[in-house]
Design a protein that fits this description.
311 residues, alpha+beta, 4-stranded mixed beta sheet, 7 helices, globular
Amino acid sequence: MMREDEIVRLLSDLTTPEQVQTAVPLSGMTTMHVGGPADVVVTPYGLEETKKVIGRLIEEDVPWVVLGRGSNVLASDIGYDGVVVRIAENLQNLRMEGNTLIAQAGATLTSIARWAGAKGFAGMEFASGIPGTLGGGIYMNAGAYGGEMKDIVTKVRVLDMTGQVIELSNEEMQFGYRYSILQKKTWVVLEAELQLTKDDPEAIKARMKELARKRREKQPLDEYSSGSTFKRPEGHFAGALIEQAGLKGYAVGGAKVSEKHAGFVINTGEANCREVVELIHQIMVKVKETSGVELEPEVRYLAPGGLDVLR
């Protein structure tokens, strides 16, 4: 693979020096706050520059991965051997066309929900407390409190591996529980269309406020985490199974099962990725022993070789 300085030169005609950094800790780019350095991090300005940067990396066969807020990503202590393309800072434009909200992939789900709600458009309330970006939310078909992205997404525009923009319908996205076709493809979400409905802004605000209250009461929002660590097992709740296994508050080094909600693994401030992964694996083994249920991690794992499921 190219050296870091060679990659910087490769992107120099597409970006400014301030947009490209080397040896950047992934711990500062993920909500779990663990992870070693990424070789190069580039922050494109806007859709066109994003397409050009990724196109160049594809042409030159340089490993790359797109990262939003890193809210559902656990980064290896070794880091990532390649280029991290950060989209959360700049791809945040929002606009309405009738009842359709067109949002760029770097906008956070919370900011989209609040922006739409203030204009009297409902449908995003369930996502108003999910910490990730629209791109990540679509990738995982994020959901909460009875709503999922599949309920409101009508079209998704992605960049494919040939550098072309293709448009996918809701059906073509193949949404399922915490799943979309993007998990099988090396495609990058650029923007999406969301179908919303008109409603009273104050009523929308009140619903979001109530959901925020529920989250504060039940979730460790003031701790470092990657959100819900496990997918919901059919017929069960992961948090309840973990608590029944006697693991609430159990820790491996600086990684700990939240005492507020056992479905969350948290970083108490001193954890590394190895400790988080070890704790997740111990939870899976113990829950299997006590209940017979196999938990499946929801969080994605970013290792030197790229982004994958945590096994």
